[in-house]
Amino acid sequence: MALVKVLYVFACGAPAASELPDFVGRAQHAGWDVRVIATPMGVNFLDVERLAALTGAPVRTDFRLPHETSNGLPPADAAVVAPATFNTINKWALGITDTVAVGMLCELVGMGVPVLAVPQLKAELASHPAFKTHLDVLRSMGVRVLFEAGAPMASWGDVLAALDG
């Protein structure tokens, strides 16, 4: 019996987040046990009930409370942030953990879990010096970045291939 790999999928507030159920299905077909974590804006782009039904687990959006001894998530074998927004990239690189999503991303990097960032943002934001600098910071921390300036977000097929590659 093959061991199941656990994939955390972090969704930020960008249009591609609405396509997440398709990606979750593809990832599951490829052998991943998927858990979805959303930023406060990301949850507005998601069909939370559909994702919970697909994954068998609630979409995580908040920090756990003091009386909760577990975050309810199995340990991750890999993580993907798709779509990753300007805001999340910048806060993550700076270690600003004001959301559960960014806090978990900071922890995953510290734990050595492979993380793939797939930005989706306007060209004007992609050309901002802070964004370019922070992508380099994330890369220096071991985060793999799937992004080409001026191009649309990488396809979900490319994201899945990058996870396995």
From TrEMBL:
SUPFAM superfamilies: Homo-oligomeric flavin-containing Cys decarboxylases, HFCD
Recorded GO MF terms: FMN binding; phosphopantothenoylcysteine decarboxylase activity
Gene3D superfamilies cross-referenced by the UniProt entry: Flavin prenyltransferase-like
One Pfam family in the UniProt entry: Flavoprotein
Gene Ontology CC terms: phosphopantothenoylcysteine decarboxylase complex
InterPro entries, sorted: Flavin_trans-like, Flavoprotein
Residues covered by the Flavoprotein domain: 8-142
Superkingdom of source: Bacteria
One GO BP annotation of this record: coenzyme A biosynthetic process
Protein name per UniProt: Flavoprotein
